[in-house]
Amino acid sequence: MRRGDGAPGALAGGDPEDGGVLKEGFLVKRGHIVHNWKARWFVLRQNTLLYYKLEGGRKVTPPKGQILLDGCTITCPCLEYENRPLLIKLKTRTSTEYFLEACSREDRDAWAFEITGAIHAGQPGKVQQLHIQRNSFKLPPHISLHRIVDKMHDSATGIRPSPNVEQGSTYKKTFIGSSLVDWLISNNFAANRLEAVTLASVLLEENFLKPVGARSTEAVRSGDLAEQFLDDSTALYTFAESHKQKISLREDINLSTMELSGTVIKQGYLAKQGHKRKNWKVRRFVLRKDPAFLHYYDPAKEENRPVGGFSLRGSLVSALEDNGVPTGVKGNVQGNLFKVITKEDTHYYIQASSKAERAEWIEAIKKLT
User: Fold this and answer.
1) Which one of 121, 167, 212, 338 is least enclosed by Cβ atoms within 10 Å?
2) What is the four-CA torsion angle of 229, 230, 233, 237, rounded to 10 degrees?
3) Quick count: other Cβ atoms within 10 Å of Cβ 315?
4) Phi, psi (5° rounding) for residue 291?
């Protein structure tokens, strides 16, 4: 969330240092001593990236820590953790490394762009160059496609195909489009996402890769060369020599896989009240349609499996009052709250980081109920 997109009242309220905020929102940070992962509220200023602990839906002041951006270097995408593909790595002037995980590729790239701009804030030429890079394309000369493909097959540092689901069918030995784009950039075969997409399209055109499933196949049929490859987390591809192996939905896919087979409509970090202890924790929420489900994930865990979720068919969603603590909410949690009541009459209490974000989630969920 950029400042001006709707400052998160329950999270940003009461901070005397609110001025000069460039961007703020949830990121998941790796610990320094114990390498566990915890959600923190990050606030980006021109020279510093602050992060806060959350208690009861509010950020705890003073900040838990800060990252000094002067002399800092940024790596994005960072592929050092196989199960965390949406990482940014910051390395300070004193060689301290910070690993930060976003909830989506778009969110990660937005954070990386703003942080990079803050690092080079005293160098107007660098900032202008960033904007030019965002909107320009140059394919690197003398690319050896065979060398790229050989490295893609490397067992240690290459692309690792795995089973993926699209529209209810499982495809073995596949990878998603956005992962390949990240890999091409990380291995210096491309300087930006546009260049990586075009390079991946060339690999398709030269039959090193094959599309798998409806989305990627349709793009190859209808798009120009630079548009044939999809930088998307739902578009599937495979190496040409290991084409798709389709598995019957009825035979091999359990109910949870059916729930997860829908198209992702929206995702982001939200705070949720627990059902038993009634404590509040940050979760990564993913909204899907066909079938309509809302799942939530624990960002501290390595495996990409939801810790909970529910069908939206027959559900009710509504905003809760911002003045005082609403009925059903435990603790002194107030502001930007909304409630989802399932068909089975289970109540979920959720907190967004701004009124605008809450309205967006409510509108998106209502369309699927």
Assistant:
1) 167
2) -30
3) 20
4) -85, 160
Give the Cα separation of 224 and 74 in Å (integer): 33
Tokens linked to 276: 């038993």
25 sits in which H/E element: strand 23-30
User: Which amino acid is it at 141?
Assistant: P
**SS3 (DSSP) at 76:** strand
Bridge partners (DSSP) listed for residue 29: 38, 100
Which is it for strands 37-44 and 23-30: parallel, antiparallel or unpaired? antiparallel
The string of pLDDT tens digits covering residues 117-174 is: 998 875 555 545 555 444 444 445 556 788 888 899 998 899 989 888 887 788 889 9
Amino acid (one-letter) located at 130 = L
Joined tokens for residue 369: 């109920």
pTM of the model: 0.68
- Six token digits for residue 124: 């107007």
Strand (E) or helix (H) holding 360: helix 355-366
Q: Give bridge partners of residue 340 from the DSSP assignment.
A: 317, 348
Q: Assign residue 103 a region: left if phi > 0, alpha if psi is -120 to 50, beta otherwise?
A: alpha
- Residues 356-365 have pLDDT tens digits of 999 999 999 9
Kindly report the average pLDDT of the chain as a whole number: 82
pLDDT in tens, 283-320: 999 999 989 999 999 998 877 788 999 999 999 999 99
CA 215 to chain centre: 20
**226's tokens:** 């630079």
The answer to whether the CB of 40 falls within 8 A of the CB of 53 is: yes
